[in-house]
Amino acid sequence: MTEGIFYLKLAGKVEGPYTIGQIYDLWAARKINSQTMFARLEAMDKWLPLAELTLTVSPPRPTIPKPAPPEAAPVVPARPRTAPSLRPEDYLPSIPTKTERPPRPARQPSSAISTRIGKVLLGLELHIGICLAGGVLLALYFLFFLPASTDGIEVNQERLFLKQNGVLAGIGLVLLGGLLIVARQIQQISAAPKADTASKSERKLPQP
Question: What is the pTM of this model?
Fold first, then answer.
């Protein structure tokens, strides 16, 4: 019964010819059912429902739905980068370790030291010259160039007193100049070893 050529009535029209394999395909595609009329080529006047072929035609297999494509994961917006918060220890000043040494103060070159010493000596020599010259001139003036007075005895005594004081003032200036000379010599003697020590230490310092 399942062999041969078959015709089908679909929507009131005769369709065919079909083999049994093609009928299977139409059945699986749900284009025909058990009530669809069929007829064999050799018996076109005898139309029967496909239910007569149920012994050989199995019901259509249920179509397995295709799996839905996986949904894309929702896009999470990137969180804005924020500056890291400062911790309390970040506010503390750094404490130098034991191995750290404070920077040494920059030493003045020997040329600058010698320049300062030269300025001091120049000012000292100027004061020495003023004291010596002023004292000598003042003493000479009161000794030899002060005019004599013809007035009374009291006036002469006053002039003599003034003359003596002027001479003493001149001598005092000369002595002050001598003291300044001695001070200059002492300063020169004490400054010489310091300048030598500074120059030697500069030579020993390693170059950075």
Answer: 0.29
